[in-house]
Amino acid sequence: MDRFVFLTLDGLSRGAVYAAFALALVLIWRAARIVNFAQGAMAVATAYVAYSVSAATGSYWLGFLAALAAGLLLGAAVDLAVMRFVDHRSPLNPVIVALGLVLLIQAVLGMVYGNEFLPAEAPFSRSALTVAGVAVLSPYDLFAFAAVGVVVVGLAWIFTRTAVGLRMRAAAFAPEVSRLLGVNVGGMLTLGWALASGVGALAGMLVIPTELGLHPHAMDLVFVSAFTAAVVGGLDSPPGAVVGGLAVGLLLSYVSGYAGSDLTPLAVLVLLLAVLLVRPGGLFAPVAARRV
Amino acid sequence: MSATRAAAPPRTPAPDAGPGPAGGRRVPTLLRHLAVAAVAALLLTAVSYGLDPFRNFQLATVAAYLCATAGLTVLTGLNGQLSLGHGALMATGAYTVAFCQTAFLDAGLTGGWWLALSLAAAVLAALAVGAVVGVAAARLRGPYLAGVTLAVAVVVPALTVTFDGVFNGEQGLSVPVEPPPAGLGPYFPYERWQLWVAAAATLLALVLLANLVRSRYGRTFRAVRDDEVAARLAGIHVARTQVLAFVVSAAGAGLGGALLAVLAQSVSPGAFSLTLSLFLLMAVVIGGLGSLAGALWGAVLLVVLPDLTHTLTEQFTLSPAVAQRMEGNLPLAIFGVTLIVVMIAAPGGVQGLLARLGRALAARLPGRRRS
Predict the structure, then answer these.
(1) Residue B152's closest chain A neighbor by CA?
(2) Which of B38, B50, B148, B289 lies at a C-alpha separation of 20 to 30 Å from B190?
(3) Is A270 inside a domain boundary?
């Protein structure tokens, strides 16, 4: 029973990070109808920025802020420099271009920092606190929960309560009409990319210290898990992404706790296939309307 | 649903898309392809005597990659399905060959034909895995399909570590391969024999693929790619066609992986990482989606570009640490940039550019206009 409680809480904290990452995917999907396959590589790049800044200043928090700022800038840069010029009539083109970005970013990181694992420090202790004899969350897990919570609430506030959020939704929903009404559609798209990439950077900062360390390929499996989370929730639904992320985190925690951590990649693949074959629109999709 | 349109259907007119109603007398497709293959085989045999062993080995590697890229171009270019998981299918073929060759050696079965049998088994194994993935893929579109195949590419190499009792983990397995037959003389270079084996298998696969592309099945592939609804209205079973394309493509990837394993005489999960899958996709996109000639350019690129960057980095005097970082990563960076630039600027790839050039030249020649 103790083990179950621990695995559940651990899964939820892992899931919170997946939720943030899935949210980043959903943001871009809603804004531009692109699944950003370069999200993982972009997040790793910002984590390397944090590593450099932390090493230079000796402060984790300066590095953390630098990573978030780098995330925002990188997202905007990717949209302005690359994605804007891609022919969007076929959904394969942005995917292929994003994969080119993956190769490029990982190669540049490998050239600058080398292809070995660098240590990634955590700002808080990662050893679990015990409450009434049961090992529960570590301070770092609480930090992850808080950070993801702030992001989720902040995004919800931006999209539902602010004028910019309204414009972003309008630009994604009806670009032509919005343009006629004076919305800067291209600017909103860039803003969407920047926001999503910033959220991705946060997720990367949170997840990398819990894994093996900093490596150009550190986010490959995390990306697959987060994509699964986004698909479980339905690519169109931000609340779905949060729930999907938590669900995937729980599943992975149970599988690695009860069946062995080697099996977690297989569990992700099985879950992804099962969801796509049974409910392709995700568990939270309203009505499956088929565009012809 | 527009999601099945191909990434960039190259607008090359197919000059020999089957005999038209007033087509006159034409050489049958099969004969034409066999003739091309025979010429290629003769050329390769001649070339294999002129090149040094290392170049022979490189050429053999091109042949192995060509199987996989040709398979992928049938899937992505002709049928409009994206697969990021072909590295995993290559791994399936490679491990099958390792198991078969070891089993044959243990059973004391020696002789060149057992290698052919192992390769056939590898193709069958990849075919079976491809059928499973293909059935799922036929229900998925665009980014969803990309996501699932990406998961396959990440997960399948990890399985070799999970079940390391069978696959021997990161170490991988060795692939025992026979020396060249004694009839070729005692001093026959091993690399030349490797080239012959790889080239023979690849030419056979290419002839089969080329015929498939020109056949009724190839036309249904393209019809499904261009407009799924119209294809369905025309009586084409869309899902079945997509599964068939995936299976054919998987067989090509399996043969390619098997040949790579035979060439390297070993197989390990590190050789079939996600990067390999991305490389394959990049190769077919840069070469030109949808034409087997484009697959050839892509396969050549996969072998030549790392070699070029290696010689390039040797030109500069770099510290060993920097040189080592450059060595592995510079080709990747060049691949990535090329992929992005080609996708934005020249969606037809190398073959598209060549075809355009050829048509421009043909238009200049008086009386030689082809419509």
Answers:
(1) A269
(2) B38
(3) yes
**ipTM greater than cut 0.90:** no
Q: How many CB pairs under 8 A join A and B?
A: 169
Q: How many domains does chain A have?
A: 1
Cβ–Cβ contact A263 with B under 8 A: yes
What residues of chain A, 90 to 149, have a C-beta less than 8 Å from chain B? Answer: 90-93, 95-97, 99-108, 110-112, 114-115
The residue type at B358: G
Q: How many angstroms separate the CA atoms of A268 and A221, rounded?
A: 9
**Buried-exposed string B23-37: b where 16+ CB fall within 10 A, e elsewhere:** eeeeeebeeebeeeb
Q: Is residue A97 part of a domain?
A: yes
- pLDDT score for B7: 45
Between A43 and B13, name the one with better pLDDT: A43
Burial class (CB in 10 A: 0-12, 13-18, 19+), B138: buried
Query: For B35-40, what is the mean pLDDT?
Result: 89
Establish if A153 belongs to a structural domain.
yes
Q: The pTM is what?
A: 0.83
C-alpha pair distances (Å), A179 with each of A88, B19, B269: 18, 50, 50
Write out the E strands in A193-245.
Answer: none
CATH of the domain at A11: 1.10.3470
Q: Residue A173: inside a domain, yes or no? A: yes
Lowest pLDDT segment from A274-278, A280-284, B85-89: A280-284
Higher pLDDT, B88 or B27: B88
CB-based contact (8 Å) between B275 and chain A?
Answer: yes
Mutate to test the interface with B, among A84, A92, A291 (most CBs of B within 10 A): A92
Mutate to test the interface with A, among B332, B334, B335, B342 (most CBs of A within 10 A): B332
Determine, for residues A37 and B76 on separate chains, whether the beta-carbon distance falls below 8 Å.
no
Q: What is the pLDDT of residues B259-298, one digit of tens each?
A: 999 999 888 888 888 888 888 988 888 888 878 888 898 8
- Report the gap between the CA of A162 and the closest CA in chain B (Å): 31
